[in-house]
Amino acid sequence: MKKHRLAGLLLTSLSLLLSHSLLAQAEENPALSLAGKRIGITVAGTDHYWDLKAYQGQIDEVKRLGGTPIALDGGRKESQQIAQIQTLIAQKPDAIIETLGTASVLEPWLKKIRDAGIPLFTVDTASPSSINVTTSDNFYIGEQLALKLVNDLRGEGNILVFNGFYGVPVVAMRYDQLKAVLKWYPKIKIIQPELRDVIPNTVQDAYAQISQLLNKYPKGSVQAIWAAWDVPQIGATQAVDAAGRSDIKTYAVDGSPDVVSLVKDPKSSAAAVVAQQPYVIGQTAVQNVAKYLAGDRTLPPATYVPAILVTKDNAAEAQKTLGQTDGK
């Protein structure tokens, strides 16, 4: 237990140092400026903590660097975001940053941005049209969360899996890594059919689905619940705890304050969440835009901002790193 706690604290400290390093590099570079530049910002939606923080990080950083943000929220409607992308193309900003969404739906419109001669950058959207995507390393995130689950279950058990948004690239990466890890642990089975998480009313829907399944599967027949993001985890955790099912643990990704608080609570079934740093991701995307517009053509295809595996052992320390308090 002490070794696991030490490893968690070391990971948290390393992530904080890396994040501070990313921001320090930008602040120390006097050439990093967006003065006189207009930057289009389009996001799939801002109803989720992660999405809102990444969006705010972009807007704030464009302003800090002296630019003018043209920020548009798609309201979680694909048709609305596409219309907004068309609006941005017509306005011909100096660059556009696109955040989240279904890759197959967005790609034709992202290509139109590049065809219009506008530099395109993305956040959490893998696209051949993007000069650079700023994100967390979702391959690593998926692997680390899966390994935590496997170790907690000691390599044996049944799990419920939410898999409603596989068309979102980062979700697919995390799910694929779960399956890759489970391949080597054949005594862990995914209960079929997999669950479909929804937007909106994600928490309520997850609560209802899990409550119903807990009646179907008696104590000892389910050991864990996995989700690719953490809003379904809230509903699932609430359902498990309300039913007194201490035999089940929940796992997810993003690190919203409410979820980190649940993981911190020793009485909660929330066992782990991989916490990203969305505000820093947003800032970093804008810094990459500024570098590119200043003539830097050495940007890699992807910039990774560190994430933190939050567990019962390191949740309090992780809250400090993430600038969170309980539920905030």
Automatic annotation (TrEMBL):
In terms of InterPro entries, this protein maps to:
Peripla_BP_I, SBP_2_dom
What region holds the Periplasmic binding protein domain?
39-296
For whether the record's keyword set contains Disulfide bond, the answer is: no
Under the heading CDD domains, the entry gives: PBP1_methylthioribose_binding-like (cd06305)
Q: Where in the cell is it found?
A: Cell envelope
Does the record carry Signal as a key word?
yes
Please name the GO terms that the record assigns under molecular function. carbohydrate binding
Gene Ontology cellular-component annotations: cell envelope
BP term (GO), one = transmembrane transport
Q: What is its main location?
A: other
From what superkingdom does this record's organism come? Answer: Bacteria
- Annotated signal sequence is 1-26
The entry's keywords: Signal
What protein family does this chain belong to?
Answer: Belongs to the bacterial solute-binding protein 2 family.
| Name listed for the protein in its UniProt record | Sugar ABC transporter substrate-binding protein
